[in-house]
Specification:
Layout lengths: L2 H22 L6 H4 L1 E5 L5 E5 L7 H5 L3 E2 L5 E2 L5 H16 L6
Antiparallel strand pairs: 1-2, 3-4
Length: 101
Amino acid sequence: MTRKELDLKLRIQEARAKVLVMQQAPVKTGNLMRSIKTRKNDTGGFTVYVDEGQAPYMPYTEGVWTAQQWGGRKNPNQGWFAEASDIVARALAASLKSKVS
């Protein structure tokens, strides 16, 4: 496999990872979903993250909380980003014929 082919495969996996995280994001207005970005990291891979300048409330969407005004209901989206990360890891491992450890 040439370097060019490897770079293309990595870009495809990066785009796939972003879409998988976007699919897991809670949607009210769509702003949180649109704030999901990717960037190259120091190891030659990529990072999927939420642009906090665009969605500074993101930690509250996945955090642990109880809303008294809603009868003590718990956060229905609690842990969504961690779950999305797990889905991405399993999908990438499967595409590379590997396992998540």
